[in-house]
Amino acid sequence: MFGTIVSSWALFTGFGLIMLAHALQGTLLNVNAVFFNFSDFEIGYVFSGYFIGYLFSSIQCPKLIKNVGHIRVFAAFASLGSIAILLHWIVINPIAWLIFRMITGFSFAAIYIVCESWLNDRADNKSRGQLIGFYMIVLYFSTSAGGMLVNLRATTDAHLFILTSLLISLALVPILLTKKPAPDFSTPKFLSLKELYLKSPMAFVGSFSIGMVYSALFGLMGVFGAKIGLSIFQISILIFVNMFVGAIFQYPVGKISDKYDRRTILLSLNLIAIASLIFIYLLGSLSFNLLLVFIGIHSAVSLPYYAVVISHMNDFLEKDEIVSGSSTLTLVNALGMVMGPMLASGFMAYFGAYGYFLYMIVIYCLVAPYNFFRIRVGRTSNIYEENTPSMIVPRTASPVGMQLASDQIITKIEDDEESSS
After folding, report:
1. What's the rounded mean pLDDT across residues 253-258?
2. pLDDT tens, 174-211?
3. Residue 109 and residue 61 in contact, taking contact as beta carbons nearer than 8 Å
C-alpha cells in the first residue's frame, strides 16, 4: 500500500495544493463579502453560486472526461479556477462574484472527479481502504491549513488572491509531469431519485437536509465571524476547529453506527447538534473560547452525519445497487447545498449574525420528527445485525469519489460473506 501512495505522489501533491487554495479562497471571500458591504441577500446568492456550479459539474464532467481525458480536463479547469479567483479582486460586484463562484464550483468539482477516478484506478481490493484514508488525511489537513493562510496579509490586498491563484496553478505541475498513464474512465451510474427515496426515505431526507446545513456551515462561517467583529486570526481558528474536530470524529461515529440502529444514531446526532447550536445562539457571544467549544461539539456530530446517512442507505440496497445509489445520494446532497447559503443569509438578515445558527437549528428540528417517524415505521428486528460496514467519505466527494468508497464497502461485504460461509 505504501508503494501505491508513493507512486501516486503527484496526484496527492496536486490535490493537496488545490485544497489549500480552496480553503484559503473560501475564507478570503467570506471576510471580503462583509468588508465590501454586500447585503445578506447578495452574500446568500454569491455563495450559492459555488454549489450550483458543483452540482452541474458533477453531472456533466464525467462525460467530458470520457471524451477528452483526465489530464486535459484537470489542466483546463485548474486554469479556469486560477483565473476565477483573480477576477474576484478585479471586479467587486455581487453579480460578477456569483458568476465567478459558479465557475469555481464547476472547476473544483471537475478536479475532484479527476483526482478521485485516478485514485480509484490506482487502488485494488487490498489498498483501496488505505488510499481512501490517506486521501482524507490530505484533504482535511490541507483544508485546515489553507484557512490559516488568510493571516498572511490583509484580505483586501491582491496578495492573497494571487497566492490562491498560484497554489491552483502550481497544482498543475506534478499532475502534468506524471509518467503514469491516465486511467480508463466510465461515467457514474445513477439510481433515479424516486427509486432512491423508496429504497431509503431517511437517507434521502437526511442527505438533502445535511447538504443544506453543510453549505452554510462550511460556506458562510467566515461571514458569520466577520459580522460579529472577530479578528482575521479568530475567524481562521473558528474555521479550523469547525473542520478539524469534525474530521476526527468521522471514524468513531461510523464504527458506533455499525453496532446499533443507524436511524437512532442519526436522531442522536441530530439532537446533540440542536443542543450545541442552541448553546451557541444563547451563550456564544459571551466568550470566543465558549463559541469554539460549542462549534467543536456541533462539528463532531454534523460532519459524521452524512457518512452515517450513506451507510444507512447501503443497509437497504443490494450489493449491485450500492455504487449507483451512492452516486445519486451525492446529487441529493448537492441539491441541498445549493439552497443553504441563500436561506442562511436570510436568517442572518432577519435575526442578526447569530441567525446563522438559528437557521441550522430549524433544519435539524424539521428532520428530527421525520427521523423519529422512520424509527417507528421502519425495520423492527435484526436492525444492526443487517448493517453494512460503515462508509466514511470526504465531505467534498463527487459521484466518482462515492464510487471509490462504494467499491471499498462492496469489498468488505464480499469478505464478510466469504468468512461467514
Report:
1. 82
2. 877 776 666 565 666 777 888 888 888 998 999 999 99
3. yes
Alpha-carbon gap, residue 196 to 189, rounded angstroms: 13
Phi, psi of 318 (to 5 degrees): -70, 160
| In the chain, where the domains are located | 2-420
The distance between the two most distant Cα atoms of the chain, rounded to a whole number of Å, is 65
List of residues 6+ apart from 63 with CB closer than 8 A? 187
How far apart CA 50 and CA 257 sit, in angstroms, is 32
How many residues are listed for the chain in this entry? 421
Within 13 Å of residue 284, how many CA atoms lie on the same side as its CB? 26
Q: What is the pLDDT of residues 296-352, one digit of tens each?
A: 999 999 988 988 888 888 888 777 777 777 778 888 888 999 999 999 999 999 999
**pTM metric for this prediction:** 0.88
**Helices 94-122 and 70-90, packing angle to 10 deg:** 160
pLDDT for 381 equals: 47
Closest to 105 in 3D by CA, of 219, 214, 273, 9: 219
Cα separation of 167 and 159, whole Å? 12
The three-class DSSP label of residue 158 is coil
Scan for cell 481502504, then name that residue: 129
Which cell numbers hold the place of 299?
Answer: 462539528
Sign of the torsion angle spanned by Cα atoms 200, 375, 390, 306: positive
Q: Give me the residue label for grid cell 462525460.
A: 63
CATH number of 2-420: 1.20.1250.20
Q: What is the pLDDT of residue 184?
A: 61
**Taking a C-beta distance cutoff of 8 angstroms, is the pair 120, 131 a contact?**
no
Comparing 287 with 119, which gets the higher pLDDT? 287
For every residue of 101-152, DSSP letters joined together read HHHHHHHHHHHHHHHHHHHHHH--TTTHHHHHHHHHHHHHHHHHHHHHGGGS
Tally helices (H) and strands (E) across the chain.
16, 0
Task: Give the burial class of 381: count Cβ atoms within 10 A of its Cβ; 0-12 exposed, 13-18 middle, 19 or more buried.
Answer: exposed
- Confidence (pLDDT) at 352: 92
Q: In a 10 Å sphere around its CB, with 0-12 CB exposed, 13-18 middle and 19+ buried, how is residue 382 labelled?
A: exposed
58-96 burial: b if 16+ Cβ within 10 Å, else e:
beebbebbeeeebbebbeebbebbbbbbebbbeeeebee
Residues 352, 336: contact at Cβ < 8 Å?
no
